[in-house]
Amino acid sequence: MTDLTKLGVAAIRSGVANGDFTAVEVATAFNANVAAAKVLNAFIVETPEKAIDAAKAVDADRAAGKLLGKMAGVPIGMKDLFATEGVQTTAASHILEGFLPTYESTVSANLWKAGAGMLGKLNLDQFAMGSSNETSYFGNVISPWRRNDGGNAALAPGGSSGGSSTAIAARLCPAATGTDTGGSIRQPAAFVGISGIKPTYGRCSRWGIVAFASSLDQAGPMARDVRDCAIMLEAMAGFDPKDSTSLDLPVPEWEAGLSGDLRGKKVGIPREYRLDGIDEDIAKMWDNGIAWLKDAGAEVVDISLPHTKYALPAYYIIAPAEASSNLARYDGVRYGLRDLPDGAGLQDMYAATRAAGFGAEVRRRIMIGTYVLSAGFYDAYYTQAQKVRALIARDFENAWAQCDLILAPTAPSAAFGLGEKTSDPLSMYLNDVFAVPASLAGLPAMSVPGGLDKQGLPLGLQIVGKALDEQGVLNAGLAIEERAGFTAEAEKWW
Amino acid sequence: MSVDKDTVNKIARLSRIAISDEEADKMVGELNGILAWVEQLGEVDVTGVEPMTAVIPNHLRLRDDVVTDGDVREKVLANAPAREGSFFGVPKVIE
């Protein structure tokens, strides 16, 4: 029998539906891979019995001739930012260690309803704050990829959805959920040679997702190819009255609408993204991407997004400001860790709990956020950042007069080594330079593999689309996928 | 604008995060590095620009003013670190 863990979402779904294999066989195969890959540290909690139970239900439904869901028989990894009823949900933090939600997030509930099963909860940067998965309380996730220099340097899987990216690249799951606040789906996807899409802000409900920066947080799928992303996004998205910013719109049939024919489409190439000193492999991959889109029938035009350089500094005011407010809920009273020093009062308990429960990066961002929102500084920092954010969104609006989609690299480099950027928070932040603008504007954006660099590591191409045009983004992603011929995989060492 | 150690201690207090003297010293440099970098936003001409309030045009919905949940006391208390009966336990606040 074929190795079922080599299959993606679409192949598993049709194989189960056709009776080529059972959902239980698929879940069993992935459970075995998960159990054998502990050294990668991709999972915080493994739930093999949940995967089997969901698979049994799908097999029973098929036997009974019932209509199967969009994700029927597909076991997935769930980023540990989604609340899962009765299964520990930590946001990779000490402060939520042992937290057992009494409710299920809307997105995960949608996936279970569609027939998916849960292999476990995936590691991430603590509260999704990080670009390398090095801020998790539960330890670093290690990328399955290694440089081709013969060394065994451990590489970052990207962040914050680093458990998701590693698990998919190492074939511990065919697909996983991610969340993207400033690139946390796209950058990890790029680092490990898989695909991932952040839909338009509001497509996927935020209800039950541990909040980081609510005006930016958006869930999306990560998977091996564009079709699998389209299938899973359909299952995840949809209006939810429990999220005040949820879009009250029908979910398009993105999978049925997939087409790599881009005739009549105009693709903009933003000149401000061609940074001085851009990595030459990145520049070459970008040029390849332009050629592939032309080959698919698109017309390529030069565009300008003049406020690009201000996106990152604006993001590092807005996101910490929202985080400082969102994370005020962790007080050691209602759930999570409590640190009560001898004789301490309520205020001391709050301060001790939060010092013990939050990691260094989370504390840093809460403090920055508190500062930029404090009396006397609010206008100079926060209001100014929100005005700049409006200008960044306007840049995109202006660009849409000239083009339908934008093509750029996902990240300025391939995966870096663990520990290489941890001493300087700013150098870590700069890794999100290409990802953050689309987040600030709430636009759909996707990363697809674009090739390998000189070190033999994957690089990602990013497509940004107009609000609500996930179809255009997916189609351009498909056109690239069909031409890039990306089949490279990390050689198994774990 | 730059922060000194007193300001860092004040921010930590406002954030309800206990920090040691050494941590405060270290934080002065880190915060100043980040603040110096974000200060480049000051050079952007924002004359006549309204601060963004919503990325995707959307109106806030109102629902009917009816009870939609409740009766879930056990669920609410299930993760309490120091439950006392049907309440959240906290250190003594009133002398």
UniProtKB/TrEMBL annotation, chain B:
Domain of life assignment? Bacteria
Which chemical reaction does it catalyze? L-aspartyl-tRNA(Asn) + L-glutamine + ATP + H2O = L-asparaginyl-tRNA(Asn) + L-glutamate + ADP + phosphate + 2 H(+); L-glutamyl-tRNA(Gln) + L-glutamine + ATP + H2O = L-glutaminyl-tRNA(Gln) + L-glutamate + ADP + phosphate + H(+)
- Could you state a single Gene Ontology molecular function term? ATP binding
GO biological process terms held by the UniProt record: glutaminyl-tRNAGln biosynthesis via transamidation; regulation of translational fidelity; translation
Q: What is its EC number?
A: 6.3.5.-
UniProt keywords (A-Z) are: ATP-binding, Ligase, Nucleotide-binding, Protein biosynthesis, Transferase
The record ties this protein, via InterPro entries, to:
Asp/Glu-ADT_sf_sub_c (IPR036113), GatC (IPR003837)
Record family assignment: Belongs to the GatC family.
Q: Which NCBIfam families match?
A: gatC
Q: Which HAMAP family does its entry note? A: GatC
Quote the function comment for this protein: Allows the formation of correctly charged Asn-tRNA(Asn) or Gln-tRNA(Gln) through the transamidation of misacylated Asp-tRNA(Asn) or Glu-tRNA(Gln) in organisms which lack either or both of asparaginyl-tRNA or glutaminyl-tRNA synthetases. The reaction takes place in the presence of glutamine and ATP through an activated phospho-Asp-tRNA(Asn) or phospho-Glu-tRNA(Gln).
Q: How does it assemble?
A: Heterotrimer of A, B and C subunits.
Under PANTHER family, the record lists: GLUTAMYL-TRNA(GLN) AMIDOTRANSFERASE SUBUNIT C, MITOCHONDRIAL (PTHR15004:SF0)
From the Swiss-Prot or TrEMBL record, give the protein name. Aspartyl/glutamyl-tRNA(Asn/Gln) amidotransferase subunit C
Lineage, highest ranks first: Bacteria, Pseudomonadati, Pseudomonadota, Alphaproteobacteria, Sphingomonadales
